[in-house]
## 1
Amino acid sequence: MRRASTCLALLGLAVLGLPAVASATPTVAFKEVAIPIPGFPHTGNILGAGTAGRFEFNIKGTEYDEGHPPPLIGINVFFPVGTKLRSQGFATCSPTALKEVGEPAIGTAACPKSSLLTFPVSKPQPIGENAAHEILANESYGLGVVKIGNGPPPEEKARVQGFFAPGGGLEFFTKGVTPTLLEFISPGKVTNSSIPGFGPANFTTIPLIETLPGAADASTEKIVVYAGAAKKTGKKASYYATVPTKCKGGLPVKAEVIFAENGNAATPEKVIANYTAPCPRK
């Protein structure tokens, strides 16, 4: 996988750099909304139906790098009891191909487009410098900042694409091009939660990315991900995610957002964010 000369890290990216003195725990506003799967009728926020989700994280903090949140190193999402997640039968993307080839691997036999977990954007195109900061409809992305030289830290947008991985896991491929070029993979796994009131959970680990010696680690301030998949076998449709069949008073969703305190992954700092989604319609 290609490495940038400065490697800005977004969407849960953390890098080794000069720590700052902690002053406050970051805050996270989290929201998850069940939405229809394009091309599949009777999906979305409907009891017992197949669904996709729009996940949004807004992060604020002042403890790191001249008033920004510390780097992210993990995001865990816990879904309500009755939610079903099934990756069996979906095509998978080779993490080796993504690491060695990068974005050009997407759409090949090693990483077919049918292995996508996130939606294609409204105007599918490779990320280029001319449209690096344009946010497209249904696009999954992260926004963050990093201190480079003098002046205010510049913002970078990185596109996020999620895939089904071999062995039942997930993987999220992130690419940004300006002000720095970066490509990295965040592996994820799905398991059953032991927390009362919650069913399946997705645990995503964000890798540390090397940068220039002495450079501050990147700070992520916003993440938006559209995720969901469906396929047809004959006339029968099957879905990666299915909404619970029962609801009373709303459906709880929990997120654990994990930061590298002062840029040090050895001292993780966990922030809990809760959201209650309205009951789906029948």
## 2
Amino acid sequence: MFIAPFAGTARAQSSTVLAISPSTYTFYANYTTPPATLTFNITLTNVINLTSWQIGIQWDPAILKYKNMSIPTNNVFGGQSILTAGPDNTNPAIVVYGAALAPGGVPFAGSGIVAQLELNVTQGGLVPPAFSTIAFEGIGVDTFLLDKDGNDISSTNTNSLYTNAYLTGNIVTHTIAGSSRPVTTTSNGTILPNSTVINTVGKTISVNVTGNTGDIAFLYAILPKDVIKINITDLSHWNVTVNGVKQPSPQITENTTHTFVYTTFPFASQITLGVQGDWIIPELSSMLIILIIASSATVAIAKSRTRRK
């Protein structure tokens, strides 16, 4: 569809990554419902002298349906004049889109967004099990990158996966002092009941997950908002970590009373997974605990005396 200036000799750039992000859109029918539209960013990492690109993306049309593909203002050629071709969705399972710098433009080097793709979830995509890869297609024909000399820029291509299935794992509840609602965790690893740790200084709730080293684990956490929450409506304000390292794209949804966090990670014996918000339930002070114990003891003595009478 897109006519490049000319095709030159391929030049290896193994560090360049062309990716569809997020890499996974995972939903579990017994906990969450997929939204009507999935939004993907097509990104480039570590590219040099980029002057034109063309992207072909395919999916399962029984699960997903094309809605829109666009070039955001903050794209890799942002602020410069570009020539575009497409998007072409003649085939209901594929979209092809291309852009090139207008004559006199400055080639791009670095990392950034190329385009944005929106796919609607069909009725079939709402019925588990439903799976669809969202993948680059026609590498070298429909999908390619060119430098300022018209040479191919070699890249590692990373696809995405949409999944809607039933969640099977170990469901564990955690009673939180001061809240009538427990924290619930589900994982294919092992989590001890009532093992969450609350850090009031860092506003973090964390849990340890154990499993076989090398396995890919998942954790789904249901967090009551009277235990931990953020103060704004932007869900990206949540900070999810694995062994202290921030997760790049956890799946987070919410309703009026709870926040739902899903993330995957590789096992390395024991994993500590933390979720940080803006507010967390305060821990009971030692003096308050003493007062509660004293109050309970007083009630017990009073009942004992009443029975003697």
